[in-house]
Design brief:
By secondary structure, the chain is α/β, with parallel strands linked by helices. 35% of the residues lie in helices and 21% in strands. Strands 1-2-4-3-5-6-11-12 form an eight-stranded mixed beta sheet, sandwiched between helices. A two-stranded antiparallel ribbon has the order 7-10. It is globular.
Length: 315
């Protein structure tokens, strides 16, 4: 039985905003705490969801919950996704997502209600890779919290994408798709999620993405994943960025989430003693607790409580 977290309209104020990232217009939702007073400044948090997702999914849920804890929070659509500009559509590009996070910081700095010395970032799943990389490069991000982080390297992706042969096939397909796009502007797509098509970006009974009461919402595309994304995704290695990360960092994970050893490895190499790893006990096998961190009451509440306390102390 799923226990969904529902937005409570009366506890926070949300407004739609726009900001520029490398010349493109990005669209976001900015949440204000219930006790917000004009003329005062507040710490701010950028909330980032998993790959392919839009602001109305886990990023927006966490943004609202952190706003209820007294922070100004921002959830936004990355370029190529949702209401934001960018072409090709549905291209999962780690490089540009890192840039977008850094430009989201620049946007928050323009707001008189934000304390520019107190900007942090929260991320779940694959968004953790992009956020940790952004924080390692951009010291304006003063603190980071991740939940159920997806962190991989060239060896890890083989476990999920058909071994060495499967990975190389996808990289070759991506290069061909990029060439086709460059030559005639045509974008090749596959399904984002499927229970029958093994070639889909995500293949399996993943209820979060299949259930319209959870993440399978109309704002998200379940049938368009740009094939050119594979090269960018499969060749990404965030692990070296740990040694460049000096911001106070809290990571929340478990053996029921994906690639638990990779989170442990990354945490050990973070270049600060001001860090904490919360490891949860669970009877759930990997990766089932991963999806619980997207929207389930127990995991989300824990991440928000621990994260808010961390940001409250470190920002």
């Amino acid at each position: 039985m799923y226990q969904f977290l529902i937005y409570q309209k009366n506890t926070t104020t949300m407004k739609n905003i726009n900001f520029k990232s490398e010349g493109l217009n990005l669209v976001g939702n900015l949440f204000y705490p219930e006790n917000y007073e004009e003329g005062k400044t507040y710490p701010a948090i950028i909330s980032v969801g998993s790959w392919t997702t839009v602001k109305e999914q886990m990023a927006g849920l966490y943004a609202k919950k952190f706003a209820e804890k007294g922070f100004i929070t921002l959830a936004f659509d990355f370029r190529n996704f949702g209401e934001s500009e960018g072409s090709p559509r549905f291209w999962e590009s780690p490089t540009t997502k890192v840039e977008d996070i850094r430009n989201a910081v620049s946007y928050l700095e323009t707001l008189p209600e934000v304390d520019n010395t107190k900007i942090g970032a929260f991320a779940v799943c694959a968004g953790s890779m992009y956020t940790l990389m952004a924080a390692a490069q951009d010291k304006r991000i003063k603190s980071v919290v991740t939940a159920a982080s997806w962190l991989h390297d060239a060896e890890a992706v083989k476990l999920f994408y058909g071994g060495e042969e499967g990975v190389q096939e996808k990289i070759s397909a991506a290069r061909a798709a990029k060439k086709k796009f460059a030559e005639d502007g045509e974008v090749e797509y596959i399904e984002t999620i499927s229970t029958t098509n093994t070639a889909a970006a995500m293949y399996g009974e993943y209820d979060y993405y299949l259930n319209p009461e959870r993440g399978g919402i109309k704002e998200w595309s379940n049938d368009k994943f740009a094939v050119m994304s594979w090269e960018d995704w499969l060749t990404l290695d965030p692990m070296p960025f740990a040694e460049k990360l000096t911001a106070p960092t809290l990571m929340i994970h478990s053996d029921g989430c994906v690639l638990p050893q990779y989170t442990k490895n990354f945490f050990e190499k973070i270049d600060t003693s001001d860090k904490e790893l919360i490891w949860l006990d669970t009877d759930l096998g990997s990766p089932m607790q991963q999806f619980n961190f997207y929207d389930q009451e127990e995991e989300v509440t824990l991440a928000v409580e621990k994260g808010a306390a961390w940001f409250g102390e470190k920002l």
